[in-house]
Amino acid sequence: MSWKHQRSAFWLADAPWPFLVVVLLALALRLINLSGRPMWYDEAFAVLYAEKPFETMVYGTVAQVEGAAAEEHPLLFYGLLHLWMGLAGQSPAAARALSVLMGTATVGMVYLLAARLYDSRTGLVAAAVTAVAPFAIYYSQEARMYALLALVATATAYFLVRAWTGGRWYHWAAFGLCGAMTLYTHNLGFSFLAALDLWLLWSWLRGGRKWRSFGSIAWSHLLILALYAPWLAILPSQFGKIQQAYWVQQPGLVEAIQTVIIFHFAYDNQALPGWLLPVALLFSLLIVAIVVLEIARHRRPSSRHVLPTLLAFLPPLLLAAVSQIRPVYIVRALLPSALAYYILVAATLTARTVPRAVRWGLLLPAALLIVLSLANHYTYDTFPRPPFDELAAVLREHRGPGDAIVHSNKLTFLPTHYYDRSLPQAFIGDEPGSPSDTLAYPTQQALGLFATPGIEAAAAGHGRVLWIVFRRELDEYRQAGYTDHPQLAWLREHYVPGAVTSFGDLEVHEFRSASSSPGSEGPP
């Protein structure tokens, strides 16, 4: 059936109640324990950054330090979060609710794209897969830009298909607007747009389109360029910032395996227990194999398969190739590619050529793995998500007038500060130019939160020091050959060690000066 004659085949009117059930399921899964999960560093940063005036965010982002931008992400999400928090507030549930709405809307957008490419049945299955996918759910519950990235990238693909299959000028305009929004949401969105353009070129050459189609293609791309032009001057320095980030490494086989598992059953490397990872990898590879076989079964490639195939596989390959020169491979930025892959999975599940036994043989174990992954997600409370709210409450209750609360770095400071803005605290700055120096000075200026240069300055003049650190950080120093964490070693040399209180894998170490009296008793 030609795309031009299938308009009635994809409208929601064909399956309103099943679609409504899928959307409600997606919303429910994204609301579970929304306020109970602790805010972590990235989310705390987003809220603290987005509460600032827009001009302050611009300065904290574009100001350059040694050729690299202060903040590595564009400002569209922060700007939207700023407006949203003005209406909904800054509590964990309120801040995350914006992503919940975007993630739920993305389920509907996946339906529209898949139904336009195939039919309403495939669209419904693709929406259902997106609704329950741990990768999609996780970033629909996080106050970060990835739910927005998934929404606008999928909308970009939909409006391009809509425009190409007989749409009007406003579909091309919507494609241009959503394409620019994709770039303003995350710099790595360019890889998704590159896949769309490759499909557009293939379709144009294959279909023998007249030159009049070139005009629509050209002006819609010029619209993207015009809207994104103000940010182009900042882009090189932002990629320089990503290159400095310790968490971005050159991808290899391990990262490829992690990406495959995350697309299917996880949201990061900690979503499943170690003993279950081989099982998850096995079923992930089986699903990929069946999807690829179904695509290869068609002797002549169809645009229906070519578009989601390019969107699913080209961005990871492109980022992996670029990362051989400059590491930029970030799995969570590939969420739009995962959504395109879910459309391929749906097309395979609805294909008549796939035996029923094969479908159920994959669906039942996959459902069990998804349940285990989501159960872990909803209850996870260790690195980097210990109970910062409990920590802030205990510190507020037991802090004495002469105490210093010192965080080993920003990762524990920002979430604790988010939960209690009035609590006097300090955090030790990263060594300038070090791989973990991710909170540049202009960003500190924008936040109004400044790092202390060393533990000596943070502890000076205080009779009791409460030093806060992740247990993982202590282990990393030992694995690197250190006898002790440098800050901890200094404290032990100049203070008398006291109690160690744990909040998940977060530790609060108490130290007193030899001359101080034990005036503030109790933990910590």
User: Which geometry do the CA atoms define?
Assistant: globular
Strand order of the largest sheet: 4-3-5-7-6
Order of helices and strands: HHHEEHHHHHHHHHHHHHHHEHEHHEHHEE
Binned, the helix content reads: 55-70%
Largest sheet, in brief, is: 5 strands, mixed
The fraction of residues assigned to DSSP E strands is 5-15%
**How far from one another are the termini?**
70 Å
Look at the helices and sheets and give the structural class: alpha/beta
* Rg from Cα: 25 Å
Uncertain runs are: 4-10
- Please give the number of β-strands: 7
Tally of separate helices: 23
How confident overall, as mean pLDDT? 89
Provide structural commentary.
By secondary structure, this protein is an alpha/beta fold. The chain is built from 23 helices and 7 strands. The strands form 2 sheets. The chain has a 5-stranded mixed beta sheet, with helices on both faces. A two-stranded antiparallel ribbon has the order 1-2. Strand 3 (403-407), helix 19 and strand 4 (426-427) form a beta-alpha-beta unit. The longest helix has 26 residues, at 92-117. The chain starts with 15 loop residues before the first helix and ends in a 12-residue tail after the last strand.
Short description:
With 524 residues, this protein is α/β, with parallel strands linked by helices. The protein has helices spanning 16-31, 41-50, 54-62, 76-88, 92-117, 120-132, 134-140, 146-164, 169-185, 190-207, 212-232, 235-244, 253-265, 277-296, 303-323, 335-349, 356-379, 388-398, 410-419, 441-447, 455-459, 471-479, 486-494; strands at 64-65, 68-69, 403-407, 426-427, 464-470, 496-503, 506-512.
